[in-house]
Amino acid sequence: MNKLRMLLATDYSAASINAGCYALGIAKEIEAELILTHAYIMSMGSIPVDAKEFAKARAQIKNRELRALEQQKNELLQECNVSEQDIDVTCIIHETGIGVSIQEEISNHKPDIVIAGTHGHGMNRIKFFGNNAWDIIKHSSVPVLLVPPNVKFHNITRIVIAVEGRENEIKSINSLTKIAGLLNAEIIVLHISSKVLSNDLEHTMFEKFRIEVFKNVMYSKLSVQLAVYDNLLEGLNNYCEKINANWLVMSPDRNSIFRNIFMPFKSATKKMSSKTQIPLLALPAYQEKEEQHIMNVEARHPNL
């Protein structure tokens, strides 16, 4: 990966503007490419019966939508005090039905990362072509960066990736090094243990996992840490705040941490989503038929 390509979908909301400014901050920092895209649907009332008239109306709507997106780009550059000569920004519109998937957009534009702004106060309050955050993440083949409201871009120097101790998570760590390397950022692999169940056996298993990480991940700015907290999600928040982390990273692949963040009726979810004030990067799920699960996070954290 020589140059990062980012896909930012906009619905012209304040959240999209905020996520766009964050994306422009990244693009300016590492000379990345930004693709600004918007999906629209032709109104049934605007579709003529005659084939020629339909084609004409379709072209007019497409031109109108493209002009609107270009205007959004200009407003975004002005809002973020960025010159068009400094950043490579491409505008792409997409005529689609409600059922379009994020995977189609990724297939069309081939980004390295998708960026979406959150709406409201919760991480689950996210809109992207009519889908919610969980649908985006579960079906994306590339990392998805969720930017909370009002979070401003700062140089990304420290990234925390939360792990459960699964063997397959090493693939996630390796994939993260590609983005972290472009940002010249430190990666902290974090496993959180319960105070009640933190024992010699778990420390032994953690050490085994730590050895496997360093054996299989070649990245100079890498550390593997074990932290002890009563509550897993609160522990993640507290740890990231304590070390001034810029991103929190997780994989949705059978990850109980991630499931709890996006379960709307869990009290822990509300705590996590309301307190998390750094972007959340969701890595693609890596699924295999057999996978060694070194440490059982659900057994150790009954208070999730």
In short:
By secondary structure, the chain is α/β, with parallel strands linked by helices. Helix content is 41%, strand content 19%.
Can you describe this structure?
With 304 residues, the protein is of the alpha/beta class. It folds into 2 domains: 143 residues, HUPs (Rossmann fold, 3-Layer(aba) Sandwich); 143 residues, HUPs (Rossmann fold, 3-Layer(aba) Sandwich). It has 10 helices and 10 strands. A 10-stranded mixed β-sheet has the order 3-2-1-4-5-10-9-6-7-8. Helix 5 links the parallel strand 6 and strand 7. The two termini are 37 Å apart.
Mean of residue pLDDT values: 78
Terminal-residue CA separation: 37 Å
Number of domains: 2
Helicity, as a percent range: 40-55%
Number of distinct helices: 10
For the secondary structure, the number of strands is 10
Describe the sheet with the most strands.
Answer: 10 strands, mixed
Structural class: alpha/beta
How would you sum up the global shape?
elongated
Helix-strand string: EHEHEHEHEEHEHEHEHHEH
Could you name the CATH homologous superfamily of the largest domain? Answer: HUPs
Q: What fold name goes in the CATH topology slot of the largest domain?
A: Rossmann fold
The appropriate CATH architecture of the largest domain is 3-Layer(aba) Sandwich
Spatially, the strands of the biggest sheet line up as 3-2-1-4-5-10-9-6-7-8
What value does the Rg take, in angstroms? 21 Å
Strand content: 15-25%
Low-confidence stretches: 121-131, 263-275, 287-304
